Amino acid sequence: xxxKCPVKRDQPHKLESSTSSQMSALHRSVLLQCYVELKSSxxxxxxxxxxLYSNFVISKSLRDRIRSDCTTAESKAGxxxxxxxxxxASAFREFVDALIASKTSVHQKLAKKLMDMVKNDQQSP
Length: 125
Description:
By secondary structure, the chain is an all-alpha fold. The protein is built from 9 helices and no strands. The chain has helices at 7-10, 13-20, 25-33, 35-41, 44-54, 60-69, 73-83, 91-101, 105-123. Helix 3 packs across helix 9, helix 4 crosses helix 7 (73-83) and helix 8 packs antiparallel against helix 9. The longest helix is centred in the last third of the chain and has 19 residues, at 105-123. It starts with 6 loop residues before the first helix and ends with a helix. 25% of the residues are buried.
């Protein structure tokens, strides 16, 4: 089981996760720049929430909270977007993958836009 691995002990596990598991500033700013569009266009019930949950990006409690606290698609997307930056370094990538996985054309377009923005940003000096 997981308790048997002695290597883990040498790593300051808790400390490390608090810094390295943060979404990068670039990904955060891309999400913010697209916030309004994502909030109004993303249907989190179309694959997105379940995809993120099954890939350990969001917790069951966050998924359930989004479903119970938010009545409209827009408010659900907004809450997810607000929480994503604190869901780990890979949360942005997984969110894009979730959009692609949903097969909806709107989601596909948004995923492409997000990836293009990241790419363009990385190329700028």
